[in-house]
Structures are given as structure tokens and as C-alpha cells.
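Late entry, evening session. Most of the bench is empty. Finally got around to the prediction I had been postponing all week. Sequence below, unchanged from the version circulated by S.P.
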Amino acid sequence: MFLEQFPEDGKSHGWLEIVCGSMFSGKTEELIRRLRRAEFANQSFLLFKPKLDNRYSDKQVVSHAGEQFDAINIEAAPEIWKHWKNQKIVAIDEVQFFDSSILEVVTKLAAKGVRVICAGLDMDYKGKPFGPVPSLMAAAEYITKVHAICVSCGNLAQFSHRTVKEDSQVLLGAVEKYKPLCRNCYNKIEH
């Protein structure tokens, strides 16, 4: 993985990392993996999640595979400033659920020398760019796109197909409401 290409000192400058992909692609697992490495290196960090995401826990970020890490729930991105006390790393899970103010917050943090790691869906269930993620990707120094496995054919999946009838863009759920599909299988389904 190219994580080893990141600057070692982290003292003189910050940067923005984005981990994105479909549902069940391992975004949160990758975020947690990066934080465990930072924890091992005794680097100070904060992990945030939107209050909206209460699927598995209110006080932890939890991957579909059961990996978990303590987190701070916030409703809006500017709340990060109330908690940040010069930690070297700020991580944000489910970043697609924040509004466009997240871009200003993370770019200011990076300008202050912070390594900022954001994980989230890059596309909604209709295959459209999701929330602030495209803008975050444009501003990021490092982007990791992770893929699930298509449950229909076994190819790499990049689409989160919604299996229930609900038209709102935000619908929390897991395997009971979504399944990962490749482009070919996704395009065969009526949306």
C-alpha cells in the first residue's frame, strides 16, 4: 500500500487523505487500520463520526466486519474545532453525511500541520457523487479507492445497490438494504 509514501515527520506540513468506495468495500476498516498504526506510533489523534450514523454504535466507529474504535459524535463539521487540541491526526468516518463546510474544516486543519483522514462513500445508491466527497477528493493529496466484491458475478464492485424501495439519498443500513455490484451488474438493474 502506498501509505508508506506519506511524509514521515508530519511536523512541517499536514495533508488530506481520502478513503472512498462503495458499501462493503472496507473504507472504515482501512480508516481504523491507519489509526491503529498511528496509535502504535504514539501519535495523538481524534476520530469523528456523524451523529446520523448510529447503525452499530453511538460512541464508536464500527466496520461491517466488526472492527471498532472510539469516536466523537458530531452533527456538523465546525464542531471539530471544539474538540481539537493540536492532535497530529484527525480522522472522520462517513464523511459523505456532512455538508460542504467539512471541506473548509479539513483544509484548515491540514494547513495547521494535521494529517486528516476521511472515509466515506464516493457515490450514492443512484451512482451519483455523494455530498462533499468529490470536493474532498479534489483537495486531497492522497486518495485510496477501495472496492467490494460484486455479489452477483464476483468482479470488483464500486456501486452500492439499494435493495429496498426508498428514494431518499440517505438511508442507513447494511446488508439488509444494500448490496455491492460491479458496473455491468449495476447497469442491468432498473434504478
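Two things to note before I forget:
The mean pLDDT is 87.
The first helix runs from residue 27 to 40.
Will write this up properly tomorrow.
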